[in-house]
Design a protein that fits this description.
The protein is α/β, with parallel strands linked by helices. The chain contains 8 helices and 9 strands. The chain has a 6-stranded mixed sheet, sandwiched between helices. Strands 2-1-4 form a 3-stranded antiparallel sheet, covered by helices on one side.
Length: 245
């Protein structure tokens, strides 16, 4: 039986443009132009994720993990290379992404759901379930700018977890909220992941979470894929590398 891929990434390159520092005086006098310098965050990587597979991405800060995830979500455009999602719906669960802070939590549920590609009617059908799961009480009708980071995280998680897409991208959110919510969100995540038709990509520094949840782990280092394979083996090599370098 031919395996089906949910995600195919080929020769992906993503760079940021940095401005070299020059003095304000020089800028004002135009004696020296600011020169732009490209920082290549992702250096021509290729990989695929099978339908129903759970891929974990590990690597030190600055290795290109979140940049890759944001490119899969369509937030960053590649300089070159391709990302093929095979027509699947996709959602990014990442703290700090997507809320309009002057709008209430309830209004943000509708907006976020529609941005994920659901109709207003589809989101409204799930609205109460999202509100109940988030457990924010009266704050659901207050502007998101009044929320603590924990409350923000709870609402973000609840929207993405309840409005189920074909592909879920998860960026360092399994450790947010209070202890009770952590337990509930971890149980919900395991339930979502157990659906053999759902494809999941998780970026995390939590090695035990990656080993417990993932089918495959991809280790990124300085914008390149250092190793991809069975979680236990890749994670052991990653830990050994980090301890000795």
């Amino acid at each position: 039986m031919e395996e089906k891929h949910a995600i195919e990434v080929t020769d992906l390159v993503i760079s940021y443009r940095n401005l070299k520092k020059t003095s304000i005086k020089k800028n004002l006098l135009k004696l020296k132009r600011n020169k732009a310098e490209d920082f290549v965050a992702v250096k021509g990587i290729s990989f695929y994720v099978r339908e129903g597979e759970i891929l974990g991405i590990i690597g030190k800060n600055g290795s290109g993990k979140s940049t890759t995830l944001n490119a899969l979500a369509g937030i960053f455009s590649p300089d070159s290379g391709t990302i093929d999602l095979k027509g699947h719906s996709i959602s990014l669960l990442s703290i700090g992404v997507g809320f309009q802070k002057e709008m209430t939590g309830r209004e943000n549920i509708i907006l976020s759901g529609m941005l994920l590609g659901f109709s207003e009617q589809q989101v409204k059908a799930k609205e109460q379930e999202i509100i109940d799961f988030a457990g924010l009480g009266k704050f659901i009708d207050m502007p998101v700018r009044t929320y603590s980071s924990g409350m923000y995280s709870k609402l973000a998680f609840s929207i993405t977890a309840i409005l189920e897409t074909d592909i879920m991208l998860i960026d360092e959110v399994l450790s947010v909220g209070d202890q009770k919510f952590k337990k509930k969100s971890y149980a919900k995540m395991k339930s979502l992941i157990s659906n053999k038709d759902r494809t999941v990509v998780i970026v995390s520094h939590n090695l035990s979470t990656l080993e417990a949840l993932c089918d495959t782990v991809m280790w990124m280092h300085d914008g390149e894929i250092k190793k991809i394979g069975e979680p236990k083996q890749v994670l052991e090599e990653y830990v050994d590398f980090m301890e000795n370098n």
